[in-house]
Specification:
By secondary structure, this protein is mostly helical. It is 74% helix and 8% strand. It has helices at residues 4-33, 38-50, 55-62, 66-78, 100-124, 127-147, and strands at residues 53-54, 82-86, 94-98. A three-stranded antiparallel sheet has the order 1-3-2. The chain starts with a helix and ends with a helix.
Length: 149
């Protein structure tokens, strides 16, 4: 193996990390404005994706202690971001549901925030450059997928 290949791989890795960071900046800024922790974001994303979970299910999915998740849910509930509702099938269980505003943000606003920097960058590139970028990334993805088989 050429000595240049590991250096090239390290350079590509740095570039991909920097790109990922740039793409996350608008969403991270929005979460920071809402004073949300990573765990709170994870809880809300799990609730939106699932349509609601019991505290036990949510704790298991998050890989966190029941008491930790309970405290996170309590704080989110105080802020109106989640609500507890008695399960229709088993009244002993309480389901935790995301608020409509949280659902709308995570389903609609967040994906747009994450794509905006990429859309803006691609607008600044010419048609040929956009095609070259897309082709190179697709080829790299295929090479990586082949490597993992």
């Amino acid at each position: 193996m050429s000595r240049r290949i590991p250096k090239l791989a390290a350079s590509i890795d740095r570039d991909l990390r920097a790109i990922r960071q740039r793409l996350r900046e608008p969403a991270e800024a929005e979460f920071a404005r809402g004073r949300l922790t990573g765990t709170q974001r994870g809880v809300m994303q799990a609730l939106v994706q699932s349509g609601g979970l019991s505290l036990k299910e949510l704790s298991r999915q998050m890989g966190l202690a029941h008491s930790t998740v309970s405290g996170v849910v309590d704080r989110l509930e105080m802020r109106g971001m989640v609500r507890r509702r008695t399960d229709a099938k088993d009244r002993r269980i309480s389901r935790i549901l995301p608020s409509p505003a949280v659902q709308q943000f995570l389903r609609n606003t967040l994906p747009r925030l994450e794509l905006n920097p990429l859309v803006d960058a691609l607008k600044r590139a010419g048609p040929r450059e956009r095609d070259e970028i897309a082709a190179a990334l697709e080829r790299l993805r295929r090479l990586l997928e082949h490597n993992s088989i």
